[in-house]
Amino acid sequence: MLAIVYPGKISGKVAAPPSKSMTQRAYAAALLHNGTTIIHNAGNSDDEQAALNMALALGAEIVERNDDRIIIKSSGVCPAEDIVNCGESGLAARLFTPIAVLSDKQLTITGAGSLTARRMHGFEETLTALGIVISNFSGNLPITVKGPIHPRPISIDAGAGSQFLSGLLFALSYAATEPIVIKVESLSSRPYIDLTLDVLKQFGRVVTHSNYKEFYIDPAQFSHTETVEINIEGDWSGAANLLVAGAIAGSITVSNLNIHSRQADRAILDVLRDAGALISTDGNEVSIATAKLTGFGFDATHSPDLFPILSVLASCCMGDSTITGVHRLFNKESNRAESISELLQSFNVPFSIEDDVLCIEGVQQLQGTIIDSYNDHRIAMAGAIGALCANGPVDISEAGSVNKSYPHFFNHLSLCGVKVEIKDN
Ligand SMILES: O=C(O)C1=C[C@@H](OP(=O)(O)O)[C@@H](O)[C@H](O)C1
Ligand SMILES: C=C(OP(=O)(O)O)C(=O)O
């Protein structure tokens, strides 16, 4: 699919899509929970569907599903199949692999598209230390695993990402019969761990930690209720694109956002404030309007998904901006250090990468161009928002990639007055 986005003003109000990170966690917890889970406002992006498929393949059952809620019943991990597929979702792979081995059945976990090229850091050492037999694994999916997991104290290095630690926290919280400690050497994407702990808590599994260095799982502190009800909040990562659009090209109100959310990408508000955008909040609504924007400095080590859209914001500011955390970009849907560099080159924006820092010289007006999205949803969305400040239309290749996290993205832009043409190719 090709999307052509025309320069112009944005104005209007849209609701943020449901949080992909939270929906996926809710499905993992619903699988592990012995009882019924009622999930309100779950998302329907490809990644969320991939997580639901994993939960179903590993033993959960849908009792009821409509637009507002999905009811899932489970009695724990009990795989129905030998091969389970995570789609293109990095989180589904890293969350459900340690969960799957609560069963003793040999399973092959596969993925699709870009996921099969992404490294699964820590799988080999940690899963082996937990008694799992691994075969057919060369660092990326597929992986064949044979449980059951033997809970014991472990150390993990989560410097390359937090997702596998989230998976271990889920798995060990349900597998442990004695207190155990997980030691963490370094941790990137820290707020995603807060989100994991938050969801576990809603299922009666309170896991504590000392400054994210040691996590304490103590089954004696856990409680159980048959039915758990969980509400999925709006997605700050998807909303960040719309909020930046308001800041660079008019005004926008995004509803369905929890201002006090633990989501990493809520940090977009701090950056927009720093850059000088006009911001107001009212309950669950955030309104942003264009003002004179100036360069900003932001460390995105713990919110790496903001990098693409922040690059566009920086391009539209007066003066220089710096975004730290380039090392967090290599193992995503594309090598985002490369895809962002190409995005900036296409828009004719001067930039440099100095060690871990992306330095961007704002130009305010971007060049109408062709953007290679690398089939990466966050590059496609950032390219579309950049188009609003371009001197001509912007063609975005493989724009259907937005389905990975935000299927209604282009509809929402159109609803806010942006001219978008979609061509199937
Ligand atoms: O736990 C999550 O929901 C996520 C964690 C982050 O990954 P890393 O922890 O690998 O940085 C983020 O980039 C990803 O989109 C979602
Ligand atoms: C990196 C992302 O997701 P995942 O790692 O779950 O594929 C993302 O949504 O930008």
UniProtKB/TrEMBL annotation:
Gene3D superfamilies linked: Enolpyruvate transferase domain
UniProt binding sites for 3-phosphoshikimate: 20-21, 25, 162-163, 189, 305, 332
Location of the protein in the cell: Cytoplasm
Enzyme Commission numbers on file: 2.5.1.19
Superkingdom, natural source: Bacteria
Quaternary data: Monomer.
EC top class named in words: transferase
InterPro entries from the UniProt entry: Enolpyruvate_Tfrase_dom, Enolpyruvate_Tfrase_sf, EPSP_synthase, RNA3'P_cycl/enolpyr_Trfase_a/b
Catalysed reactions listed for this entry: 3-phosphoshikimate + phosphoenolpyruvate = 5-O-(1-carboxyvinyl)-3-phosphoshikimate + phosphate
Assigned keywords, A-Z: Amino-acid biosynthesis, Aromatic amino acid biosynthesis, Cytoplasm, Transferase
Function field: Catalyzes the transfer of the enolpyruvyl moiety of phosphoenolpyruvate (PEP) to the 5-hydroxyl of shikimate-3-phosphate (S3P) to produce enolpyruvyl shikimate-3-phosphate and inorganic phosphate.
Pathway given in the UniProt record: Metabolic intermediate biosynthesis; chorismate biosynthesis; chorismate from D-erythrose 4-phosphate and phosphoenolpyruvate: step 6/7
Name of the featured protein: 3-phosphoshikimate 1-carboxyvinyltransferase
Protein species of origin: Flavipsychrobacter stenotrophus
Main location: cytoplasm
One term of GO molecular function: 3-phosphoshikimate 1-carboxyvinyltransferase activity
Active-site residue numbers: 305
PANTHER family: AROM/DEHYDROQUINATE SYNTHASE, PENTAFUNCTIONAL AROM POLYPEPTIDE
A Pfam family: EPSP_synthase
